[in-house]
Specification:
The chain is mainly beta and 187 residues long. It contains no helices and twelve strands. Strand 5 and strand 6 form a beta hairpin.
Length: 187
């Protein structure tokens, strides 16, 4: 018995694919096929089929492919699909309000946001204050967490509590000055 080996298929290639998550499946492109060739694909399960495996979510996928041509040995190849996480859409929290003496934890943030600055940070100065927040999207598999977002908090005094201090004592020629300062906000 004489063994006959089939000729090998040549000129077949498939480039690796890189992209960012879009919600749509990525595919490899097998080049160098001829009319009548049958191309099949296999993902992690190793089962060849005529359609490519779903490669939608962020991650790295290895795709095996085979090309069958009448009268030739089956050609086997591999390509990689690397899908990176996307940047999520978000609106910087606005209209945040707090009171002098409270902590950042008392200022309510929209869903998906949390304080990056320590939540026990005291709100000490009345007026517009900036603090850092981070945004964690619902879909953390496909979207990045965004940090170092500057959010403005309008800090108000919950009710002035004044103490007085003589800042300029009176003299025989001039009245003195008594200054009232809020112990909470410094007003």
């Amino acid at each position: 018995i004489r063994k006959i080996s089939l000729p090998k298929i040549t000129g077949i290639t498939a480039a690796d694919v890189e992209g960012t998550y879009t919600g749509k499946s990525y595919e490899i492109q097998v080049q160098g096929t001829q009319q009548g060739d049958v191309v099949q694909y296999a993902g992690a399960d190793g089962q060849y089929q005529p359609v490519q495996p779903d490669m939608t979510d962020a991650g790295t996928y290895e795709v095996s492919y085979q090309v069958e041509r009448d009268g030739y040995a089956i050609y086997y190849g591999k390509a990689e699909v690397a899908i990176s996480k996307a940047e999520p859409d978000y609106d910087v929290p606005a209209g945040l309000k707090g009171y002098v003496g409270d902590t950042l934890a008392s200022v309510e943030l929209p869903e998906g946001f949390s304080w990056q600055d320590a939540a026990d940070t005291k709100l000490e100065t009345a007026g517009k204050n900036k603090f850092l927040v981070k945004f964690v999207p619902e879909d953390v598999r496909n979207y990045h967490t965004v940090t170092d977002i500057e959010a403005e908090v309008e800090v108000e005094c919950p009710g002035h509590q004044y103490v007085s201090e003589v800042t300029t004592p009176p003299t025989e020629e001039q009245d003195g000055i008594e200054t009232y300062t809020c112990t909470l906000c410094g007003h």
